[in-house]
Amino acid sequence: xxxxxxxxxxxxxxxxxxxxxxxxxxxxxxxxxxxxxxxxxxxxxxxxxxxxxxxxxxxxxxxxxxxxxxxxxxxxxxxxxxxxxxxxxxxxxxxxxxxxxxxxxxxxxxxxxxxxxxxxxxxxxxxxxxxxxxxxxxxxxxxxxxxxxxxxxxxxxxxxxxxxxxxxxxxxxxxxxxxxxxxxxxxxxxxxxxxxxxxxxxxxxxxxxxxxxxxxxxxxxxxxxxxxxxxxxxxxxxxxxxxxxxxxxxxxxxxxxxxxxxxxxxxxxxxxxxxxxxxxxxxxxxxxxxxxxxxxxxxxxxxxxxxxxxxxxxxxxxxxxxxxxxxxxxxxxxxxxxxxxxxxxxxxxxxxxxxxxxxxxxxxxxxxxxxxxxxxxxxx
Length: 380
Prior knowledge:
The protein has helices at about 5-10, 10-15, 100-110, 130-145, 160-170, 245-260, 265-275, 305-315, and strands at about 20-30, 85, 115-125, 150, 175-180, 195-200, 220-225, 225-230, 235-240, 285, 290-295, 315-320, 330, 340-345, 350-355, 360-365, 375-380. By secondary structure, the protein is an alpha/beta fold.
C-alpha cells in the first residue's frame, strides 16, 4: 500500500506504453538532492538517474564534487557543475541536510525502479527556498537542457522570477509547481503564474487533501497523503503535502515527452489537463478562461491520469494554427490499431468538410475568432 498512488493515477497501465527515457531531463529546484541514493543515483538497477553534464569533465572521484578539475569547461559560469548546481551555497555540491528535494526527486526517478527520467538537481535553499536566487536557478535549468522544471516551493512574487518563468516558457520548458499547504482558497506563487501547471493534493479516496491550496489557478491534482519516497542516507520515509503531488505530474510530463518528444510545452500541458480524471463527485463545469475541459475550483481539471495522458500523447493531433475558408486538415498521429471509431468535435467558427471517423479531418472556417479541434477515440 506504500505506493497506492501509482494505481490512482493509472501509472501501471501507463508503463505498459512507456517506462520513460533518460533523454528527458527534469530539473528539480529544491533543497538539494542526495544523488548517492540507490533509487536516484547509480543503484542496483544500473541506471544513472542523475543528469551528468556532458560538457564538464568527470570528477576524479564521482562521489566527491571537490575532485573536479576546477575549470568551467563549458563556459556557462559554473565550475565543475557535473551533477547540477547549488545556488544557495554557490558550489557544485547539491547534497544538503534537508531531505525535501530528495523525496521530490525520488518520486520522479524512483517510482518504477527503472529508467524514468534524468534528474538535474538544483539547490535553491536548504531549510526554505530563497526567492532571490530562484530566477537564476530557472534560467540555469533552461540553459542546461531541462525539458521540465519541478518546483515544490512558495516564494514572494518578483519581476525577476516572472521574467525567468517567461524565459522558460519561451524556450518550450514545462513548469510544474505545488499549489501550497495552507488549505487556502488561492494558489500560492509561483504556482499561481498562468504559465505554470499548479498541482493540488488528494487523499486515497480521491478527494482534496485537507491541507491543499485550491482556487481558480489550480490546474490538476495528484495523490499526496501517506506516500513512501526516498530520503537522505539511502533511506525512505512517508510524508504528506502538495510538494509531493507536484512531482507526480512532472513524472507524467516526462512520460509524455518520452513517447512524443516533439510536443511543445503547451501541448504537454493540454494533454495533462484534458485527460485528467473527474473524480470525487465535485462540480466540474465549463469555466471562463479554462479551455482544456470542465474543471472545479477544488480539483482543477481533475486527478492526473498517466495512462490516458500517454494514450493522448501517442495519438496527438497536429494541424495548422489558422483555418481558412478553403479548409485545413488535422491529423491524429500514431493512431493505435485498437481504435474502432473517431469522433471529431470543434468549437465556434469551424465546420467539418470531410474526414469524420478517420485519422485526417478537414475543417472549414465559418467565421473569425478563436476555436479548437478535438478527436474522441473509441477503442475496442
